Amino acid sequence: MSINYAEKIPNNVDLSADRQLQRALERWQPAFLNWWGEMGPDGDFQARDVYLRTATSVDAKGWATYGHVKMPDYRWGIFLADKTEDRTIGFGDNFGQPVWQQVPGEFRSDLRRLIVTQGDTEPASVEQQRMLAYTCPSLYDMRNLFQVNVEEGRHLWAMVYLLHAHFGRDGREEAEDLLERHSGDINNPRILTTFNEPIDDWMSFFSFTYFTDRDGKFQLKMLAESAFDPLSRTCRFMLTEEAHHMFVGETGLGRVIRRGLEVMQELNTDDPQRIRDHGAIDLGLVQKYINFWYSSSLDLFGADRSTNAAAYFANGLKGRPDEDRFEDHIEADTAYGIEEPTEDGAGVQEVEIPTRNAMNLVARKGYSKDCDIGVTRWNRMIRKAGVDFEIRLPSDRFRRTVGPFAGFHFAPDGTPVPKEVYESRMDGWIPSEADRAHIKSLMKQVTAPGKMAGWIAPPDRGINNNPVDYEYVRL
Ligand SMILES: [Fe+2]
Ligand SMILES: [Fe+2]
C-alpha cells in the first residue's frame, strides 16, 4: 500500500478507515510535537532547513525522498512493511500456525512490555543527543545527527501506533508515558540504564550509533520474527532506517581513526600525547571508547540465562535474529553451553542450560559478530597505514552489570583480576577524566560547508550523491 501524505499523519495502514484510532493518534500528535520542541535538538537548529531523508514508501527500491526541511515539519508517519500472505509462526511451541493480526489475551501484557521497552529507547536517544549540534565537527555530521534524531522520533511513532491500535486504553496511557519519562531524569528516567547516560561528545555519539543502535538492530530483528504480525511488519521497516544510524557510527569512528593515522604519519610518532597535542585522537583512546560502549551495550541483551526470554520464544513473541538461519525452530529439549565465573571468581566454567533459556545470549553472540565487521575494517586501515595496533572488542566478561559476570572482575582480555587491580586499572581501560577532558577540548563546532574539525577525516562521499561540501544544513 502506498503512503497517504494528504492526511495529518502520513501512513500506509489505512488510518482514515478507523476514525477512532485516527482521532486518538491525532490527539497524541501535538503532545509528540511538544516533546520534540522541548526535548529534541536544542536551540535554533529547529528553525533551520536540514537536508533530510523522509520515508515515502516501504518499497525496497525507492523508499525515501531527500530535501531540505525544518525538523518540526518532518513528516513523521506510520509505515509497516508489506504483509506476507499466509505468513506462519516461525519458532516456538506454535511453530507453523498462522501469525496473529490481533494480540492474544494471554500474551497481552508481555507484548505490551516488549513494545514499550523498545519504544522507550527511541525518544531516549533523541534526548541524550540534544546538545550535540553545538559541537558538530562538520555540517555533514550535523545533518547526520538530525537524520538519526528524526528517525528515532519516527520509531517512537511506530511503537505508539501499535500501542494505540492494539492495546486500548492501557496502550494510550503507555503512549503518554513514553513522552513523560526522560533520559537521565532522576524522578522519571528512561527504562534502560544505557539510555540514561548523556551523550555529550561526538566520540560517544559515534560509539553509541555503532554499538547501541546495533543493539537496536538486533532487538528489531528479534521482534521482526514475532508471531504478532503488525509488530513484525513495523520492525521490518524500522530496520531499513536503522542501517543509516550504524553507518554513521562506523564511518564516524573510521574517520577518527583515519585522522589519527594521518597525524601519526605527519609527526612520525606513535606517542599518544603528541597526537593529542596536535588536536587528534590516538588509537588507544578510540579503543577505550569501544571498551566502554560495547560492554554497556552488551547489558542491553539481558541476562544470559533468562526464563522471560524462554517464555517469549516458546510463545512466539520474540524470536532469534534471523531465525531462518537456525535448523531447529522449536528447541524443546536442546541444551546450550554458557560461560559463568567459578564461585571464587578466579576462573570460568561452562555449564549447559536449556537453549530456550539462553536466547538472550544467542542474540548477543550474533550481535558481537556483527560488531566485529567494522572492527575488521578499521584494523585493515590501520595495517595499511603501517601502524602496529589492533583494535579489539573487549571480552564479554568485562565490566558487565547484567548476566553471570556482573559483580565479578575481569580484564578486557577476559582474564580474572583481583578487585583492587580491576579498580586501579579501569582508567587505562575506559576513558578516564583526563581522556574525557581531551575529547571535550576538541569539541568545537565547525559549520563551513566541506570543512572538518581537526580530529576527524572527511567522509568518502556526501549524502545522496551530493558533494561533501554541500550545504546540508542552512544555518
Ligand atoms: Fe530506532
Ligand atoms: Fe537508531
Strand content: 5-15%
Instruction: Please give the largest β-sheet.
Output: 3 strands, antiparallel
Question: What is the CATH third-level topology name?
Answer: Ribonucleotide Reductase, subunit A
Helix content percent band: 40-55%
Structural class: mainly alpha
Radius of gyration: 23 Å
Spatial shape:
globular
Q: Secondary-structure element order, as H and E?
A: HEEHHHHHHHHEEHHHE
Q: Order of strands side by side in the largest beta sheet?
A: 2-1-5
Bound molecules: fe (ii) ion
State the end-to-end distance: 37 Å
Low-confidence stretches: none
Number of strands: 5
Question: With helices defined by DSSP (H or I, 4 residues minimum), what is the helix count?
Answer: 12
CATH superfamily: Ribonucleotide Reductase, subunit A
Mean pLDDT: 96
Number of domains: 1
- The CATH level-2 architecture is identified as Orthogonal Bundle
Question: What's the CATH class, please?
Answer: Mainly Alpha
